[in-house]
Write a structure and sequence with these properties.
The complex is a heterodimer of chains A (177) and B (569). With 177 residues, chain A is mainly α. Chain A has one domain. Chain A has four helices and two strands. In chain A, strand 1 and strand 2 form a beta hairpin. Chain B is mostly helical. Chain B has a domain of 265 residues. Chain B is 73% helix and 3% strand. Chain B has a two-stranded antiparallel ribbon with strand order 1-2. A two-stranded antiparallel sheet of chain B has the order 3-4. In chain B, helix 1 packs antiparallel against helix 4. The chains are: A mainly alpha (177), B mainly alpha (569). At the A-B interface, helix 3 of A face helix 1 of B. Chain A: Its main location: membrane. Chain A: Keywords: Cell membrane, Membrane, Transmembrane, Transmembrane helix. Chain A: It is found in: Cell membrane. Chain A: This is Multisubunit na+/h+ antiporter, mnhb subunit.
Amino acid sequence: MSGADAGAGTAEDAPDAESGPSLGYERHTTVIARTVVRVTVPIILLTAVALLLQGHNQPGGGFIGAVLTATAFVLVYVVFGQAYLQSDLLGLDTADDTHRAVEYYRWLFTAGLVVALASGLVPLAFGFPFLTQAVAMLEGLPLYGHMEVASAFAFDLGVYFTVVGGLLTVLGEVGTE
Amino acid sequence: MASPVVVAPILVALATAVLTLVTRFDARAQRATSVLGGVAYFAVVAVLFDRVVLSGPTVVPYYVSNWPAPYGITLVADALSAFMLGLAAVVGLAAVVFGSTYVDEFGQRLSYHPLFHFMMAGVSGAFLTGDLFNLFVWFEVMLMSSYVLVLFYSGREHTRAALNYVVLNLLASAVMLVAIGGLYATTGTLNMADMARRLADPAAYGVELAPTLGLASLLLAVFALKAGVVPFHFWVPAAYRAAPAPVTAVLAGVVKKVGVYAIIRLFFTVFAGGAYANTATFAYVGPILALMAGASIVYGGVGAVGRDDVDGLLAFSSVGQVGFIVLPLGVGMAAPDLTVAFAGAERTLAALGVAAALVYAFNHALAKSLLFLASGTLHATVGTTRLDRLGGLAARTPLVAASFLLGGLSLIGVPPLVGFFGKLLVFRTATEAMAGGTPGAGVALAVALGGAVLTIAYVTRAWNAVFWGEPSETVRTVLPERWRGVGAGGDAATDGGTNGGGSDATDRALAVQVTTLVALALCIVGFGVGVEFVVDAAAHAAHAATDTQGYVSAVFDPATQPGGEGGGH
């Protein structure tokens, strides 16, 4: 179900638009808000990924990227609603009106911690102290020419997942109440 | 080459926390991971203790990320850190075993295990770090987890207690951050060894000394709040009563000691470098510490005598007992260079004061966590810890009663338990200071003696009201006959009290809890009989704490420092 054919623009007096199979976000938000969110969310996500990728030696990093990503989710939650995000974007079953996505956010949080801790432990296996990082310079690549691969990115990625998972779990839990 | 054994306690605690999150879907796997993590933590701390203390006291630096000091974060394991870690490992292991049966199934799955181990990671990091800002970070790791654990039951009074606790600690964290920022601006470094080096020779590094005294006293206030010393004690009773028993055991036994450790590390190791310290910092901070300690002893003692439930009594007693821990620090600062013969060597009074504080802290950690856990078992069996509703439990639960008695006696300081030697060293510090003509040492001694009498009063009162005499109405209803869960293989006839029904699972859970209590009680007796071990370790730790020179030279030892180019290998 796309939700676009639920009588856009007509203010029906349905009791509670949140419940039931109808997604009903048309009744709560304006066309302007929806359009702006449609345009900005991809930009926000792209910026978040850019910040994540350059974070190990330029302004940015896992944390700020994750906060931006969570902002994108918040915009979708506020403007399109929980049901739309779960059924249309994440493909979850929302039949019984539970906030199933929160369980996935929790796992994201756990996975992030695992990645971050593991990235710190790897250097121990090579006889270096905890969290030691390495950098590899790749030369002569097509298109890029020169690229820097830093092991710190693995830690940043862990931080990213942890913060996205953590923030969304909090938002999801509080939002459901 | 850096030895990973230094960082191992932090890593084991962190890994356990993460693994208990991963095994969240299976309650048994999660519990097993958590307990195994506690055992592993104990094991790595034992290895570290052996490395740093037993095989010749050494200071082992660890350069995280392979960055040389003072640019990167340095962890430093010396005898003081190892002593505190040992204390944390014993109490942590007992609490994690106890908690795996005490906290209800839902609570365990929800968040109990990860939070508990994150708290242990924070504690270990605080004990090991050699970097002032990193100390702040580990404090926060520890506090974040403890916030949720204090709020664990989420009732009305729990929320109120947690709100107090959170707001106060956030304020303290803000103050700590300001103080650290100020110290960085003044001394130009965050590395503790580097700071000690600069403060010892301010002219060579262009350090302005005057502001550091004020910033140091800001830090003192923060650490006093963490330790729960009067006048920063007011969050203690409510928070300790709100948290689940195993968490309270760790809060009172270990987390409080992080504040004490920070005072020792910063004031005796970092701010005490060189001639400057003894004339300014010690002379200024010593009397304040002694005054706060004396006030704690009196306030906690009197408060505990007046409580009408076991939890409240123990919480107030914690305030008083921390006074006993801090008192020798203050007295030791008053005449730091006085020479005394102690633990087979000529040592300074400052070292004796630190050793007394450490032995007392060890005793308090064992005894108070035992008593809080016993109080938790009373909650689980009888459903209340109010003194007027309990009575005669000695006949019903003799093992709990015996453990409680041993814990109480150790708190009072009856030989041959550890508590006796702790009190003895505290008194010894005061009498040596008095003999050396330190003004006010006599008052400190008198306050300590008065506090000891108060301790006898409230421990006796608790024991009489809870375990002695005829069983009360409540006890007769919930425990009609003697509970024989332990040793009888869990087939005892017992009514599980609040847990509802004397099921096998409840019996097993109680058996585990009682076994933990007995094990802790045996520790108190064992360490009391073999007190040489504890006192020697404390003497080594005190030496490490007061030996600024050794600390600095170990951290900046060119043989262990990573290459100057830093992390990018």
